[in-house]
Amino acid sequence: MTYETIQFARDGGVATLTLNRPQVMNALSSRMRAEICDAVSTLSGDVRCLVITGAGRGFCSGQDLTDRAAAADLEGTLRDEYEPMLRAIRACRAPVIAAVNGVAAGAGANLALAADVVIAAESATFIQAFARIGLVPDAGGTFIIPRAVGAARAMGMMLFAEPVTARQAADWGLIWDVLPDEAFTDGVAARARRLAEGPTAAYRAIREAVEASFGNSLDAQLALEARLQGQAGRSADFVEGVTAFLEKRPARFSGQ
Questions:
Q1: How far apart are the first and last CA of the chain?
Q2: Membrane-crossing residues (predicted)?
Q3: Beta-carbon neighbour count of residue 27 at 10 Å?
């Protein structure tokens, strides 16, 4: 697919997907959703960290409200376009960082929250803006946000539709970290390189275990941990990690 609404670049093991409609604060069009889904689903095997960010002064303002076709069938748009995009992000073979460089509103906020790790610039904000136009939060927001911050804060965010600052989002546990604006780009790059040099298969197993924990009993979770740990214990990365520890040197993980 030729990309018209996103930019996709590689630097070693790190791939960066930039939402690239800055003139409309990177609003999500049908074309952009298809391009995000394609880019994430077709990552080459040597990509070991994916960063999703926005061009210009915002991360993503949510659904493009000028898209009349999407507005005419919101249910179909969610099922046919949003769900494949979000599932592709959740199933990505590499860990995903959302680098929120500015406002993340509506479905744009929930796109960011679908990542494994969210790092925001100090000036960024998160807004569940749906109620402002008489809609219900979607794109996974009603699933992700209550699990991250609890029902009381989730309801407040969604009913009042007021901006939540990056610092407040981090204090609530909605996101992982906040960086000063002037240190944001370098800070995200350093975190991405760290993940790209890590045990990629173990990261996927960690994601699987954490996601399953919300629906599992303790017995089921213990069984899952044992199975995943057994797989990890048979990997070359485990051998390398132990060897590096004993030799008092940094590990050189292959990600396999």
A1: 28
A2: none
A3: 23
Domain 6-196 classification at class level: alpha beta
CATH code reported for the domain at 200-246: 1.10.12
pLDDT digits (tens, 9 = 90+) for 80-104: 999 999 999 999 999 999 999 999 9
Which amino acid, residue 239?
V
* Cβ-contact 196, 48 below 8 angstroms: yes
Query: What are the backbone dihedrals phi and psi of residue 7, each rounded to the nearest 5 degrees, phi first?
Result: -115, 145
Which CB contacts under 8 angstroms, 24+ apart, belong to 141-144?
141/107, 141/109, 141/110, 141/113, 144/110, 144/113, 144/114
Q: Supply the DSSP symbol for 116.
A: S
DSSP-derived 3-state class of residue 42: coil
- What does the alpha-carbon distance between residue 1 and residue 49 come to, in Å, rounded to a whole number? 21
What are the domain boundaries of the chain?
6-196, 200-246
Look at strands 164-165 and 96-100 and give their pairing: unpaired
C-alpha–C-alpha distance, residues 63 and 45, integer Å: 31
